[in-house]
Specification:
Aminopeptidase, 7 strands, about 30% strand, seven-stranded mixed sheet, globular, alpha+beta
């Protein structure tokens, strides 16, 4: 079951688990301070009008979440997957795809999913999910200020539209 929530308290335990997982992809010199900063950013989701929290539950337990906002790195307008996590025990079961497609369907328009290069499993996951969701009509973009790739697409009309980044073809 996928639900939108307003308060962050419900996802704090799984969010802390997520931070532990994500810490392997970054050079972090002060882990407690890094986690504290991430938790402060999470608090904004309960106050901001342009931020959304979706949770995925199985048997009344939260097994994943998606944080959606409009803080974009590549597009001028639209939505971004800010944070996304499925617990390891539920990986490769289709739960992640289900959650991703659900949130995409809630917000028509431009989308971007930015993934660090170091997180190879996430790069593979998002390329597959976005490819299937868009019927291979998306842009894979890299820029100097971000050490990773973004998958860009538009779901307003079921196809990628002009992002002012180039044509509506799949690019590597």
């Amino acid at each position: 079951m996928i639900t939108q929530i307003e308060k962050i308290e419900e996802i704090l335990p799984i969010f802390k688990e997520y931070l532990g997982y994500m810490s392997q992809f970054y050079k972090i010199y002060d882990l407690p301070a890094w986690c504290e900063g991430a938790l402060k950013n999470l608090e904004q989701y309960s106050r901001a009008d342009d931020s959304f929290i979706y949770i995925l539950k199985k048997s009344d337990s939260i097994i994943g979440f998606a944080l959606i906002n409009k803080h974009l790195r590549f597009n001028h307008d639209g939505f971004a997957i800010a944070e996304f996590y499925i617990q390891k025990d539920h990986g490769r079961t289709g739960c992640g795809r289900l959650l991703a497609e659900y949130v995409f369907s809630r917000f028509p328009g431009n989308w971007e999913v930015a993934v660090t290069l170091k997180n190879r499993s996430a790069l593979s996951f998002w390329k597959q999910v976005v490819s299937v969701y868009t019927s291979d009509i998306f842009i894979k973009k890299k820029k100097a200020s971000f050490d990773g790739y973004a998958f860009l697409f538009n779901n307003r009309h079921g196809r990628t539209r002009d992002f002012t980044l180039g044509s509506a073809h799949n690019k590597d």
